[in-house]
Amino acid sequence: MPEASELRLRLHEAISEIGQAAWDALRPDGNPFTAFAYLDALERSGSVGSGTGWQPAHLSLSDGDTVVGVMPLYVKSHSMGEYVFDQSWARAYEQASGAYYPKLQASVPFTPVTGPRLLSPDPVVRSALAEAAMSVCNRNQLSSLHVTFPTAEEWEMLGDNGFLLRQDQQFWFDNPGYGSFDDFLAALSSNRRKVIRRERRDVQAAVDVRQITGNDITQGHLDQLYDFIADTYERKWGTGTPYLTREFFPMVAETLRDRMLLVFAYDGDRPVAGAVNFIGEDVLYGRQWGCHVDLPFLHFEVCYYQAIDFAIARGLKRVEAGTQGEHKLSRGYLPHPVYSAHYIRDARLRAPVAAYLAQERQAVLQHMSVLGDEASPFKKTP
């Protein structure tokens, strides 16, 4: 087991400089988003890199010639695509004549999914990765370092290393071993059971919903998926340019096709809606979706109910359906904590942020408790 002081730190402008064998050997689980293939596709497709505000600066630690730890790390010139919102911190710091950007971000870009950020089987090396990233921040006089959606274990360790701790919630479907979707419905209150059945019946009477996986995914599906997602961006933000480029999806499918689940809705032979999910070891991760029609409950069917169907059929333990949306709660997705950790170099900003986060964590925990106790769609147990 190497001593932290003996490790050599390097920053890499592309993950290819580290190499797939070295990177993937350090992954502790089957989370698809920390795979070399996924992060490399982000770079090769132009989703991150020059002109995007996400400049790769991946950190590696080596013991001699052997890479023993890595961190997905980016230099950021904005706060977009992170799903942990610090824009108010940036404004406050800039009003005090500070420069908030550039900053460092340890994350998977555009992906609000919990997963490892300090990739090493050795706890000494994991702690050394955090210390090394802080030293990079200090040496380059950057305002801050943000580790978003780490595991709970990493979050606690980062807190021990002086990071400020933040907590939020997402809504996930937990599968205790249901044999079918009807088994899941049987666990719900009578009213919620009726509502979900009606929503599914109405959608399935209007469109044909299909699950597409593995080698059945074609280039045509991926092009159509991009168009659906672009439509969502246009509707919500007035720009039809998603974070993920059109080139990203075929690139990631080159090596992760068997980890992808597309759910498409068809009006006859015409695709009218679609969503992309990624399949982990025991988790299904819902990512992005879009549609070309206005059909009540279509979003719920394509993104939530089909995901539950798939997870039950595959024996997966959980569906993580992304950020936001208390509307997910009434459809069987319960609140779960998610985490981020923040190193802020300047005490003028660090102190007020620390005070704010202490209050915010308490409020999040109270809100989760209320939702779990009072708004759960499941039958009340005596």
From TrEMBL:
This is GNAT family N-acetyltransferase. InterPro entries: Acyl_CoA_acyltransferase (IPR016181), FemAB-like (IPR007434). It holds the Pfam family FemAB_like. PANTHER family: ACYL-COA. SUPFAM superfamilies: Acyl-CoA N-acyltransferases (Nat). It comes from the Bacteria. It comes from Asticcacaulis biprosthecium C19.
